[in-house]
Amino acid sequence: MDKKPNEVLVSMKNVEDYALEVITLLNQGAQEVDIKGVGRDIGKAVDVFNMIKDKLGNGVELGSVSIGSESRDKKRLSFILLRVKKVY
Amino acid sequence: MDKKPNEVLVSMKNVEDYALEVITLLNQGAQEVDIKGVGRDIGKAVDVFNMIKDKLGNGVELGSVSIGSESRDKKRLSFILLRVKKVY
């Protein structure tokens, strides 16, 4: 799967690892970071967002949410894309 | 867990069952139906939305998405709330 700039694809690692990855991108100057979860990792993507929200509070907000499905290995998988926006 | 009017809580049943439940509510006159998924059922809630979108096409749209966490049995669980809106 293509990884776009400022997109964190949630997969095998811990929730904490992905949350830290997003926070690092924000600290490095990114205004927005997309958290992507596919298939069974959709729930984990939401966990990652909640952990970031816990840590940064009003410093971030949920910008937009996209939902859809994509094909992988001939199977149709749902995905979610959570856009985290920095708030000043 | 409280079940509000026009809210379908995704849990043990098949994706098809929940999709049918939402479509039935829309056919009975509901303008909006919330699909709720908690914890490991978050991904299934997204599957339900995608199936409804497949079946009804431009007849429905994703109104809004809420994300958060709630306590259950002293554990913190993420949830997602997908609002399906009828389009005319």
Automatic annotation (TrEMBL), chains A, B:
Top-level taxon of origin: Archaea
Protein location: Cytoplasm; Chromosome
Domain annotation DNA/RNA-binding protein Alba-like: ranges: 6-68
InterPro entries per the UniProt record, alphabetical: Alba-like_dom_sf (IPR036882), DNA/RNA-bd_Alba (IPR013795), DNA/RNA-bd_Alba-like (IPR002775)
Pfam families: Alba
Keyword DNA-binding: yes
Biological process per Gene Ontology, one example term: chromosome condensation
GO MF terms, alphabetically ordered: double-stranded DNA binding; RNA binding
Gene3D superfamilies assigned: Alba-like domain
UniProt keyword terms in alphabetical order: Chromosome, Cytoplasm, DNA condensation, DNA-binding
GO cellular component, one term: chromosome
Reported function: Binds double-stranded DNA tightly but without sequence specificity. Involved in DNA compaction.
Similarity remark: Belongs to the histone-like Alba family.
Official protein name in the record: DNA/RNA-binding protein Alba
